[in-house]
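Can't paste images in this forum, so I'm doing it all in text. The chain is below; anyone willing to post the predicted structure tokens underneath?
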Amino acid sequence: MRLPKGFLASGIRAGIRKKRPDLGLIVAPDGANAAAVFTKNRFQAAPVTLSKNALRKTGGKLKAVVVNAGCANAVTGKAGHDAARRVRARAAELLQCSDEQIFVASTGVIGVVLPDQKLREALPDAITRLSAGGTDALSHAILTTDVGPKVTHAAFTLGGKRGRIVGVAKGAGMIHPNMATMLGFVMTDAALDPTTLKVALATAVNQSFNAISVDGDTSTNDTVLVMASGKLGNASHADTTDFQRALDTVCRDLAWMIVRDGEGATRVMELTVRGARTERDAKLAAHAVATSPLVKTALHGGDPNWGRILAALGRSGARFNVRRVSLFAGKVQLVTNGEPAVYREKDAAKVFSRERVPIVLDLGGGNATTVVLASDLGHDYISINADYRS
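Text version of the structure:
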């Protein structure tokens, strides 16, 4: 897949990992406006704090992204920050820009200092391999436990001109709302200022990356970055409605791919909580159900054991009247006003056997609604994470 105008990318092996590519590079030769959202974990990795401060100093301007897999460079103190700075400085030297115009990101094992010499020595090769068709190489270079790469795109109209958005992401474990280990890089040829991009990204992330859960853990490195090259040449005052639609679509597509690729996942629950008094109540209810090991294992087994869903709701802290709660699996009503509904077990089991299982939990007490995507939890999740550092 070709990148939008104004962007080049590559992906190579720098040697952090034994066999797989582990260094990705995105370059906007003429620069780009940018905005990002980051993990809310208190233990923020060196590349997160470094890139967050850099975007603030430049006012949302950057020229390149250097991203590595195989080492998160998180909880590594001054040594980790120094290593990230050296990588950034080398990239800036090669691309002839200031250090702050280089955005760095990392993913992998926590507690290990980034082997920056390997990255610095590999950067010239990564630059040589840059191309507008480098999306595939980039997408493979940032993976960790992912089964495969995550790439999507969308078109939009802005100021009468037709533009493109391309998104690349990684993530399969440590996925949970409040920035679910996850990295996302979104590129567009639109001419939009950093403030507009920041607002648009926040809107898109809240209904995508902040509405997914695999295991209830939030990483130290989560980052989603949007970059706009301006090559579309649209007027600065153009209506951004269709751009927002396209950005929302790209982020939702990537979020779905992450949950579906949840470590060992076989199916995804699309949980809608509606009828809540407030948005907070809706989110509390959804969070409890989406992260319940009992719900997630029942989902893995294709078992419509709805009692687990209501039990999770009951401890969620959400306010509701138990006599008004209803529950649906697809078109099959399982619970009516807090009591078992009349249905055929095989009809419910059929819904739970799908790859995408639609569940609606109606609290019957208001107008607030939220939607969360959550993967199942099976034997492979334990195997993958028990052997992660082996």
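The longest strand covers residues 23-38. Confidence is low (pLDDT under 50) at residues 174-180.
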